[in-house]
Structures are given as structure tokens and as C-alpha cells.
Amino acid sequence: MMKPMQQIRGISAVCLLAVPLALSGCGLFGSESASIDAPPPEVEAQMLQTSGDTTLDSGVFGPVTQDDTQTAVKGSTKTSQGNASGDRTTVFLEDGNGLLAPVSLSLSKSKDSTALKNSLMALVSKGEYASSVPAGFQGILPAGTEVKSVTVDKSNLAVVEFNSEFNNYDPLEERKILEAITWTLTGQDNIKSVQLWVDGKKLTEMPLQSTPLDRPLSRTMGINLPKQGPLLMNSSAVTVYFSTTSPDGIQYYVPVTRFVPAGQEQLTAALNELIAGPESGNGLEMVMTQGTILESVDAGQNGVVTVSLTDDMFADGKGVPAEMLESVVLTVAQNSDDALVQIRLNGKESITDTDNVDYSKPVSAPEYLNELPL
């Protein structure tokens, strides 16, 4: 369970989507609009059709050595031998701001495809798992949707077949439905991509808004895209997790895809977007202070990525907001095949956060996000 929000909030996770884009519109990095909508058609086609590896949610905030049992996860303790959280599944639900957020639920586990089916059934509005969904969240699939089958082939493609009730959705939520399905499944069992069927027929496009489905969907499609964006030719997309609170005042994290000029080093670009903060007006909050500066990112040969930050507010490296440090760890791990992360702040390696977690050693990223109370 996450604690109520402190002075600076947020865990972030990043997955760089190396997609050449030609964008139009204005205000992506401004404060006028944070509405979620599909990108322009030519951008949509490229994002949906781009294939390739994407970094999936995995790993747990934990120590490098088996002897060190302290973790950077709020409200939980994990050793290298097991997870105190137990068996959970992370699914993407719609929150009160109309954004998709990962929520870790206790669902029935099994060794076959039942677990995958259950994760999708948790996305059904007023479905059998509605009582397992925390207050303030809801499934995005139409009521009455059934998951007839989920199979995974040798290429890690998940083929999902729904019943015809799947087609009875709000046309304005078409893309959000695809994002929720894709991000839920690609966070499990090394699944890389997703293909949709309805009542024995493969979908080549969505039935209401004709979103193309001629190729399998992966996380390259992004999630929670801004409605408008500036003219950025040859752009890449980074997906960053920002922070917000549930109706009960519990902190949770929301992924938002952002566009950056192509050619930037991906970890540097992602961390700079994290520091820049979310768009205003969508309920998301800053995870860094206005004085945070990224000095360097060093991917060492020992599998540890070192991130050097400066921030005069935390000159002695003590009492640093836990959310600030966790956001850096998640951002790096998500975008570097779950690398261990070493943080240096103002040149110091000895760093402790507001939960008294010691960051003097590298840590890894959490396996489950947003374990919210019902």
C-alpha cells in the first residue's frame, strides 16, 4: 500500500518509443490542453505499426546483494528470496481524470492462459472483478465483454478473442481501449505484442473509428497521448510516469507519452521529460523540484546506470523525498532492460530518503505499481 502524498510525489517509468514522427498542432508542452486523444492519422499509423522490442514493467525495488534486505518500495519489504506483496497482476484502468493507470490487483493465478484472461476481465466495466477495483478507477471495456481465449505464440504474440459485446464501446474511447489491453498484456509473461479477434474473426481495424489493426499492437503505440502537439519533425516518444492521488488521498502513478526531438540519447531525454513535469490541467503532479538538474547519465559495463543530479534543496543528501528518488530509478530501469540504478545527488553517493531508505547502493525497479486499497 502506498502512503499519502508528501511534499514531492511520484514514481516514473519510461519506455522510449523510437518512432520517427511528423506532428502537427500546438501546445503539447504548454499548459492549455492536456486532453487525451489520438494523434494525427499519419502519426497514429506509424505508432501502431512500428514493431520492435519495448521495455516491459518488471523487477522489484530491492538490493543488489542478498544480504541487504532494505528496499525503496513504500510500505513494503522485499528480499531477493520473495515478494511480500504476494501474487498480484498489474492492469491498466481508467482513473477519475480519464487517464489509464496501472493498478496491481489480487487476481486468480494459474499456470495456463487463465491468468491472462483474468487480467483482461478486470478491464471490463461492471465485470466479475469490479469488486477488486479500487475506488476512483474503472474498467474501460464495455459491460458484457467476455474473453473467450488468450493464446501466446513462440514470438511472444498474445492473440485475444472477445465476444461481440466488445464492439459496444464509446467511439471516443476506441484508442484508450487498445492502450489498456496492450499495456496490460505486455506487462506479463514476456508478451511483446497483441492481436485482437472477435467471435472467430481477426480484426484488421477497430469497428467504430477504424483504428488500423493490420499489425500487432505493442507499447510503441504509447499511452495517454496529449490531444495537441507542436510541429516536431523526426520525433521520438518517451512515456513517463507522473504522480497523482486517488479520491482517498493515496498516491498512484500514471504513464503519459511525450514527444521529443529525434536523435537524443534516450535515457537523457526521458529523465529531462521527468524533470520538466506533466502538463497542467490533467491532475498529474511534479515529481522533481524546479531546481533539479540532470548532470549526467552513465551506463556502466557492470549493468548499473549511474544518474547524477544536482538540487540545492537537498544539499546534504538527507531527507530527500522518496518519490523523487523512486521516479529516477523507475525511469532508468524501464528504459534500460531493468538495469540497476545508482543515484548521485550533488556529488554525494550517501543518500537517504524520507522513508529512511539508504540509496548508497544500486537498487532495482518495483515489480508492481499502485497497490491501492479497495
Automatic annotation (TrEMBL):
The GerMN domain covers which part of the protein?
116-207, 267-354
UniProt-listed Pfam families: Germane
Indicate, by first and last residue, each region the UniProt record lists as having compositional bias (Polar residues): 66-88
- Keyword vocabulary terms for this entry: Signal
In terms of domain of life, where is this protein from?
Answer: Bacteria
Give me the ranges of the annotated region Disordered. 64-88
Q: InterPro entries given for it?
A: GerMN
Tell me the leader sequence span.
Answer: 1-24
State whether keyword ATP-binding applies: no
Q: What is this protein called?
A: GerMN domain-containing protein
